[in-house]
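Collaboration report, partner site 2.

Our partner group contributed sequences for two proteins of shared interest, and the home lab folded both. The records are reproduced in the order in which they were received, starting with the first partner submission.
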Amino acid sequence: MTRKAVYAGTFDPFTTGHDDILKRSLALFDEVTVLLAISPTKKPLFTIEQRLEMISEHFKSEKKVKVDSWGGLLVDYAKNNGIDTIIRGLRPTGDFEFEFQMASMNKKLYPEIETIFLMTEGQNYFVSSSLVKEVYNHKGNVKSFLPETIYKWLLNN
């Protein structure tokens, strides 16, 4: 039986923290879908199409990674695609309370789903897409916060 998981977020942009969580989850699962959440309330730096393309390019040689987008409930995507595990990253910045609430709601909506939390590595404790965008918008250097593929996209767009 194939062990499948989903790692969902807006990933705008996909950071070194996201990259670390995803790569570590590949040791646990046969297939991990990076699911780009379509959020009408957020103002993205990149379009959904650009994010799909850049993350697909970043993982083009990793056969265990799929990249997709979804505008509905995460649990509905999981049900529709035979996925029973959600991967979430936790930073020591107050993430747990929100993530616990979300995992509990997902479990209520889809009792077969499990959420697995992976702690961020030390060099990524403070990295978030929002902070990276803020630094970038103020002309700061964000190279160390982004995988090389994503950084090149940022420079060319």
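Second partner submission, folded after the first:
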Amino acid sequence: MTTTLTGTKGKAKAGPGRAARPGDPGGRRRRRRGPAAYAVLVALFALAALMLIPFAVVVLNAVKTPAEYSANGPLALPEGISFEGITAFWDRTGFGQVLLNSAYISGSVAVLAVLLSVFNAYALGIGRIKGRMWVLVVLLLANTLPQEALVYPLYYLSKQVGLYDTRLSVIIVFTVIQSAFGTYLLSSVLAAFPRPLLEAARIDGASRWQVLRYVVVPVIRPTMAVLLVFFFVWTWNEFLIPLVFLISNDNQTVSVALGVLQGQRLMDATMSSAASLLGLLPTVLFFLIFQRTLSRGLTAGAIK
């Protein structure tokens, strides 16, 4: 009887008329947002709108005619939608081929650089090879080295091996450059990899390749996804090395085609806006497609 009464009293204390205990998940209530939180949201929306103003101006000028731009200025709304500047730029640069070149080079570099970074980081972070610290120092210095210092030796080497003015030469160069950063990042992640997982896999008879494929890669997959997105965008926006290595029009990338035409002064204001829009739109679409992958990789971390 005493036990029953005690249990009944305990239930009564946890009822809806009583305040929930601090550790009771059933008594949790949603915190109401105060004025400060709404002020922060309003400030963020205002900042986002301010940052989108240049993009909106580019879009407005890209759909104007040259005569309309000269008469009304860059900030006036277009009287109608005209694709004259976009079609003129597309035909003048052969933008379809240029777009395919950039997508092919950036995609190949992103995939190959991530794979090379994983292999290198596996040897440095888990394999613990000799001179690991010196290798990491060299990779860190390679990340800070300006590309202007690399142009001439890379140009000379590509001439010697017969890869000059080929997309393969740019893919090889950027794969090595991007993998230096990826190796440095992933090696620091794999240095803190849980050792019990590795020991359990080795006890089960897994080889080094199987440990990498079935144990390490599933854990660091979010970080690999983030590196894939970053490598693609970084390679897409590169200008100096593609300008030096890709001299023919059939091999040029988007950034090189934009720079060459602007240097020749063959474009008016509407065509320049159309060129900027076409050059920026693929990266925006790429970010929108992989937004969830990027956010998951940044928030989840590499080690769970």
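Feedback sent to the partner group on the second submission included the following. Residues 42-82 form one domain. The chain has a mean pLDDT of 82.
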